[in-house]
Structures are given as C-alpha cells and as structure tokens.
Structure to design on (632 residues):
C-alpha cells in the first residue's frame, strides 16, 4: 500500500477559476475580504486572478490590485494566471510569486480556446522564461497542462502527448508543471497512471493537480494523486467555476470538502475547516443566485471531528 | 501500486435504503418498473425492500410482492433487509437470495436505532442461521456492520470493536459480512485501513462496502476499498436516501456516478450507464419534490465515452 504524505497544500483558485465563470463582478473590496479570510483560515497559496485584457474578462480586471494586497499578508504565496508574454510581464511587475501559463494537450481545444497549438504555447513559455531572467523578477513559472484526460471537442487525448508537452514545458524553462482535468473526464485510475509517469518525468517540479467535479470524481481523483506523492491541489471555495462547457455541472473540487478529506487522512493542510465553512457562507451570500457546489457545508463537520479539532488546538 | 479487480458489482439499494427515507409512497407498479428497468440496464443485484412491520415503514410494505416479481427475472440476485428473526422468516418464505441484518458498531446508535446491543444482534443472527438451516431455505445471511467509522450519537467508534463485531457475526453463522459508513464519517484512508483488516478476518466472506455521500467522499471511499480487493458496493439511483440525521445532506453513493467511475477504471460492472441515466430521469419524475443527488446526470457521459461504449458494443 502506498504511503501518504504528512502534509499537503490546497491552492485556492476560486478567485480566478471560480469567478471567471460568474457574470456578476465581485467588487475588489469583497475579493480582498475573501483573501483575508482565507488567509486567516490558514490558506497559504491563493491564485488571485488572471492578467488578461480587462475587456475580455472584466471580473478579473483588478488582479494587480489583488496581488498587491495579497502580498501584504506574511507568508502568503500569491499566484496568477497569464495567457502570454504580455500577461507575464504584468505578473512580474505585480510581484506575484508564481504565474501559471495554461497549455491544452488537446490540439483542438488549444486552437479553439487559446488560438495556439501546444507547441506555440511552449515557445511562449520559453519567451516568458527569458523575459523573467532578463528582468530579475523572482516570479516562478508554472506550465499547466489542461484537457489532460480528454476533451469535449477532440475526445480522447493521448497520455503520451500530455507527457511530451510536459517535457517540452520543462525544457522551455518552466519551473513547475501541473496537470488539469479541465472538463471532468478523469477517473482515479487514469490519474494514478498519468501522475505516476508525470512524477517520473518532472520529479518535484510536478507541482499540482487540478480536478473538476463535473462527474463527481474530483475527490477520488485527488486521493489517487496523493498515492503518487503529489501534495498540492487546486480547489475553489464552494466548488465554484469548473466546466463552462457543461452549464449546471458540478464545478471544481470544493476547498472545504478537500480540506475535510485531507484532515480525515491525517494529512496536515493548516486549514481551519470551520473557518473555511464560515467564509463559504459569506461568499454564498455575495454570489446569491449562482450555482454553488460541495457537500460538507450541508451536513457540517461531524461533531466528533469538531471536538477532536478543538482538543488538538488546546494542545498547541 | 495495488492491482484493481477486473469486475465489480453495484448492488442497487435505492428501493430500500433510498425509498425508506422518502415519505411519499411509491406505488408497487412503479417499483416493479424500476426493478425491471434496472435489470434491463444490466444491474444483477438489487435490494428490493425490508421485512419490517408495515405500520413502521409503509413505504416498504410491498417487499414480499417485489421479491416475487424480482425473482422472475433470470439471474437477478434479490436481497432484502431484516431487523430480526421474524423478518428473516418472511425473507425465507419470500424466496429472497440474501437477507441483510444490520448491526451498529456504535453501542449508543445500536440502542437508539435497533433497541439492542451489538451482541444481542449477533445472538439474533445465530437464531436466524439456526432457523434458516432448519427450514431448508437457501437465503444467504449477511451481517452488515453500520456506523463503522463514527456515529452522530456516540462520536468515535473503535476499529477494534468493528472487527470484533465482524468476527462475532461470522462465528454466529453469517455467510457474509459487510461494512457501512452510516452517517458519512468515513474517509478513504480510514476505509483502506479498516477494509484491509476486515478482508484479513473474513476473506471472501467480506462482501460489500456501503458508503454515504454525506460529506462528498463516497466515491473516494469506494476507490480506496477497491484497492483492498473489495468488489461489491451498495449504491442508490440518484443517490437517494443516505443520512436521516442530516436533512438535505448528500445521500448514498449514486449508482450512475459509481458506474461511471468503475467504467473509467476498466472495471466491468455489466451496467449500461446511458440506460441507467434514462431510468434516473424517470425515477426523478416519480419523486418530484424530493432531494436527489449525483453529478453525472447534469453533465452527461463524455461524448468520447459514449463513442467508446458504442464501438465496444459493436464488437460483441
């Protein structure tokens, strides 16, 4: 039986992957409150936005301001998404700790969504790396490989192509690589097989798993990934966001459900789940009318769990 | 890495564990239609009801009739739940293939719910076994250990107590034993640890895992159980039922979501998922106003999956 890690990181991507599919623009003050509360609840890695043109995604137009705010919180590791060199340059200026460049392993999805082939994205990462090194910025570069388990446009995506893209991203100078199940095609066996090989290629530079709960398998997929030694997972509060191609479908892995699963496995995340559930209530009020997800919030923490957590806190 | 089984069984318990928590009584004709459609979709093990006094559970008053109908379907393995010897005698008469006697490993839950201690349930199983052997009936006896991962009344439930109950059930003459997470306290690591030990005690007589999705972990728990070699899981169409102590909480593992996960792992269940989704639509109409669960029905099967299934069917 595989040995589990003792610690894991839940990277909160609700402010980017979550909000980008929500039409009503959340005011910057509320986003700051969200970041502050998530930090107070123990979250230490947050993707706060995306450096894309504001006219394309008005929801994320305040990303630079949010990076600046997030960087005032000691020990918070702040990441952003960027589609290209131009976005990366804004990320360097903002002082973000990490920028994620999405690449789609499905050629059809890549062309439809990014208007580039996967290899053109790799070339862009090489340019971003050169610009980073020239600028002296310390921002880490992560290449995130999406549609890694299948695609709504192309259908099957070959595992060899995913791994080829990963190697190419590393060769182009990505400091980190990660894998995403963009449209909810992944199952736990496929995750285990692909992540095992990815770890063999990228070692500790294989950074993060990103699972959508489109068909209910996000947490099973995280569990399978944990068995391969991966210890960082994207998730969104209340599971917001997810699959724009399947309206109404369950969204991302819900941060609070993931935190509960990890706690039950004695894997330390530093997250205070009760505090996260209170933040969820607040964000749910802000996003009234939007479809939220997750299961824990309905049932609440088991009483025995709450007592356990309280006594653990007393011994600190 | 553990090796996965090539086949698994989804035991449909929606007509019992699902319907028992739904107030509007589903007419017998619709239950027959449900059983017939589930059978047509490839399901080969169905728990059709419970032999409890009709005044306590009017929803399940037609269990004998449903067993008789289900037994007309060739190769369908028909099970029922019974609380005691009296119910077991009705099960023998009905011709059910298996009866499940619930035992609660939490003493507090056992007294509150069954009005017996765990050891009194074990003694009842011994009487049921003696009656079965005397009657010449062929009905298998399964002892189902509930609240095996914790309990809303008692809190923690010791693993040693669960395993002690399991051994006692086997000693009392249970042909099969199974483990249930009655209130959604289980996580995948706990499942793996407990199921590993249970398999060591009961071998092939360890028959089935039963997971509620109260806190979103049902499928992750099934995945962990598969790694221990367990190949039979209770589930309910649309995830109905589940935790009566947490109203609104996500219910049982949803049969259709579980079938999708297993298919994605190349584990054969014999289930036609598209047919199961059509049955779900029908049952959802019948149960209008009730809380249903599951994720797959919203997003549907991935197109590539449907094409794969269609080409697989052509090669048969």
């Amino acid at each position: 039986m595989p040995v589990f890690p003792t610690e894991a990181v839940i990277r909160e991507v609700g402010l980017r992957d979550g909000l980008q599919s929500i039409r009503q623009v959340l005011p910057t003050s509320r986003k700051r409150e969200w970041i502050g509360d998530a930090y107070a609840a123990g979250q230490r890695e947050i993707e706060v936005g995306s450096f894309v043109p504001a006219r394309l995604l008005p929801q994320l137009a305040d990303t630079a301001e949010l990076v600046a705010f997030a960087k005032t919180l000691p020990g918070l590791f702040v990441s952003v998404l960027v589609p290209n060199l131009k976005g990366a340059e804004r990320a360097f200026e903002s002082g973000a700790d990490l920028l994620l460049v999405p690449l789609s392993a499905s050629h059809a999805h890549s062309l439809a969504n990014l208007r580039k082939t996967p290899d053109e994205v790799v070339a862009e990462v090489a340019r971003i790396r050169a610009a980073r090194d020239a600028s002296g910025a310390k921002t880490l570069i992560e290449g995130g490989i999406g549609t890694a388990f299948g695609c709504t446009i192309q259908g099957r995506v070959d595992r060899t192509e995913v791994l080829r893209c990963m190697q190419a991203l590393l060769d182009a100078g990505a400091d980190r690589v990660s894998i995403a199940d963009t449209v909810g095609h992944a199952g736990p066996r496929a995750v285990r097989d692909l992540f095992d090989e990815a770890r063999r290629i990228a070692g500790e530079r294989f950074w993060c798993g990103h699972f959508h709960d489109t068909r209910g398998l996000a947490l099973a997929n995280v569990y399978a990934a944990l068995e391969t030694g991966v210890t960082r997972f994207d998730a969104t509060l209340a599971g917001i966001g997810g699959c724009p191609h399947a309206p109404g479908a369950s969204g991302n892995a819900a941060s609070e459900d993931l935190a509960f699963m990890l706690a039950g496995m004695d894997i330390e995340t530093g997250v205070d789940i009760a505090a996260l559930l209170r933040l969820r209530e607040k964000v749910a009020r802000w996003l009234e009318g939007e479809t939220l997800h997750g299961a824990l919030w309905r049932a609440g923490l088991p009483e025995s769990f709450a007592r356990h957590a309280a006594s653990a806190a007393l011994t600190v």
In short: Confidence is low (pLDDT under 50) at residues 312-316 of chain A. The CA atoms of residues 117 and 169 of chain A lie 13 Å apart.
